[in-house]
Amino acid sequence: MSKLLTIGSMAFDAIETPFGKIEKTMGGAANYIGISASLFDIEQAVVSVIGDDYPSEYLKVLTDREIDISYIEIVNGGKTFFWSGKYHNDMNTRDTLTTQLNVLEHFSPKIPEYFTDAPYIMLGNLHPQIQLDVLAQLPTRPKLVVLDTMGFWMNHTWDTLLKIIAQVDVITINDEEARQLSNECSLVKAAQKIMQMGVTYVVIKKGEHGALLFHEKDIFFAPALPLEDVFDPTGAGDTFAGGFLGYLAKTDDISFNNMKNAIIYGSTLASFCVEQFGTERMLSLTKDEVLKRLLQFKELTQFEIKIA
Ligand code: AMP
């Protein structure tokens, strides 16, 4: 069984969308990634940090999915990372209202011995120095390292960010972040510039407008499934990354062609994530539901054309 190691935030989130509001729910990139990747039969560990205010029921969500949590550090007397955001009416953009790093501020991840040889590594959105420290702890080069980041690190830790980008295989960012990172308006040019920074594959997520995969001169595009109701997009990007990497780890094939399938899986899982608040929908999701939606996805995107 392939091993996937994820490093990322675990959080309390407060979320406000045009459809409602929730004051405190389970959040953080590592939770969304771990839950999403658990739909594939792979071995997983999540490395993160929480305070002793973090409920044991939230940890149980990961252990119920057989995810190794033994290297999630619990800081006695510490407060768990807290994030709050408010979505605009289009649901594609949001304002971050609060970021309280709390225990995340001094996070120094330790990798479980059994996962130091994990072929698949997900570096969730964190300070790029933490992401570099994780790679430095691995005795051999993993098969595939996927990096997520955000505009904040581009503004504040540019040089360190460039170092980690040059060491990973895939970067997953949204369209706005890709434009900021490359200083290009065209996403095609942006991806080319980002590949010149040393990363082999660039995945650009465009929310309800789908996702693009770039590798050398090849481009693949997957639309997002048109949904009647989008309730809360929080975690969609991380759920996408968990599906993308979970699928690659399960199939153990990192060819460009197989990455196309991984993009479809990532998009399919993200389409569930947005249907309810926070992680709620992902927690009730079954493999059967995923299969049905994958077939819907196939129908949506397949056509035969008669040349006139
Ligand atoms: P996404 O909607 O996929 O971008 O991910 C949202 C999740 O990222 C939320 O659950 C937050 O707790 C988490 N998050 C937001 N800001 C940060 C940050 N600066 N560092 C780590 N995690 C974050």
TrEMBL record:
<dbReference type="InterPro" id="IPR011611">
    <property type="entry name" value="PfkB_dom"/>
</dbReference>
<dbReference type="GO" id="GO:0005829">
    <property type="term" value="C:cytosol"/>
</dbReference>
<dbReference type="Pfam" id="PF00294">
    <property type="entry name" value="PfkB"/>
</dbReference>
<protein>
    <submittedName>
        <fullName>Sugar kinase</fullName>
    </submittedName>
</protein>
<dbReference type="GO" id="GO:0016301">
    <property type="term" value="F:kinase activity"/>
</dbReference>
<dbReference type="InterPro" id="IPR002173">
    <property type="entry name" value="Carboh/pur_kinase_PfkB_CS"/>
</dbReference>
<dbReference type="InterPro" id="IPR029056">
    <property type="entry name" value="Ribokinase-like"/>
</dbReference>
<feature type="domain" description="Carbohydrate kinase PfkB">
    <location>
        <begin position="1"/>
        <end position="281"/>
    </location>
</feature>
<keyword id="KW-0808">Transferase</keyword>
<keyword id="KW-0418">Kinase</keyword>
